[in-house]
Amino acid sequence: MIVNSDRLVAFLQSLIRIESLSGQEGAIIDRIEAEMRSLAYDRIVRDENGSLIGFIEGERPGPTLLLDAHCDTVGIAPGAPWSHDPFAADIEDDRLYGRGSSDMKGALAAMVYAAAAVDRSQLAGRVAVSASVMEEVMEGVALIAVMEITRPDFVVTGESTGLNLNIGGRGRAEVHLEALGKPAHSSSPQEGDNAVLHMIPAIQAIQAMDLPSDPLLGPAIMTLTDIISDPYPGYSVVPSRCRVTYDRRLLAGETSEDVLSALRALPELEGLDVSIAQGEHETYTGAVLCGPKFFPAWKMEPDHPFVEGALAGLRSAGLDPKLGAYAFCTNAAYSAGHAHVSSIGFGPSLETQAHVVDEYIELDQLMAAANGYVGIIGGVMRDDVKHEM
Hints:
Blueprint: H1 5-16, H2 26-38, E1 43-46, E2 52-57, E3 60-70, E4 91-92, E5 95-97, H3 101-117, E6 124-132, H4 143-150, E7 154-157, E8 165-169, E9 171-180, H5 195-207, E10 213-214, E11 218-219, E12 221-230, E13 241-250, H6 256-264, E14 273-276, E15 278-282, E16 288-292, E17 294-295, E18 298-299, H7 305-316, E19 323-326, H8 332-338, E20 342-345, E21 360-362, H9 363-380
Parallel strand pairs: 3-6, 3-7, 7-20, 8-19
Antiparallel strand pairs: 1-2, 2-6, 4-5, 5-21, 8-18, 9-13, 9-14, 9-17, 10-11, 12-13, 15-16
């Protein structure tokens, strides 16, 4: 083992015991910074949004590799039947339970220890590890500031892959449809214009849409997630406004105009307002993240030098990864989708462990991931590797 397993597990337990909802990550960032200092990171920076970045500097010049993991988590649904306290970090049958264990404090802890374990004399370039904030509410937006500081040539996101290597990921757009009508007393509906009735054929038309598919990323998806009328509650009033929200899972190359124009071309949506939602969220530092909720899909070619170097490094760590892609959206929506920086995904545990009751990470996956990150660093950050974008 290259990484100290006892210290890594204890560190992960300490992270899980700190609640870190989006916008409330200050305490966990403090804890990660303390651990980086104890591991003798060369430089540690906290950006304006509160994300933390630690640097390991090689003895020779070379590119910058960024290992990124978000430190915020979703909450605990009221009344959810957890059999383990979500913040106790209990270990049972070689599983460590707790909110964020898989999504994605396990990967974060593994990255922190992996980078610290690297032999600087063998490192050409530098490794940066970021504990980024606010990913659960706006994928990749906080990563913008991280990348402005680190200027990476390559990015690894630690979202769960089951120890496989992901070379793509679907993106996400939040789409709003709005219909306007005319209010009236519900005892005289003919005097009004019911906005909900305008929305029904639109929903049916969207349900019947043919959406594109991709050999790596799979099908695009359009899922109705919310519908609300106004006024609400509607006591004896014909609703004069209806808004519907869709979660649109994106494929590589799709733009916001592609998504919107396809919807606006449907006759059943004539007269409706169709738009991409705007997000605005305050970080724990008081900074405000804002922008359209459109997070692009991305993919890499299997023969890209970065992919090949990462694969070689993982195999040197004793792993046998398969190539795949994320079904969900990650921070790579910015690094690869917007900034066009070569990006891959590698992490412990499975996508299906995200956001669930009794979330857990298997300890052998945690250790394999830590050693896998060491392998990726060694496979990419060597003098004889082609450092191409």
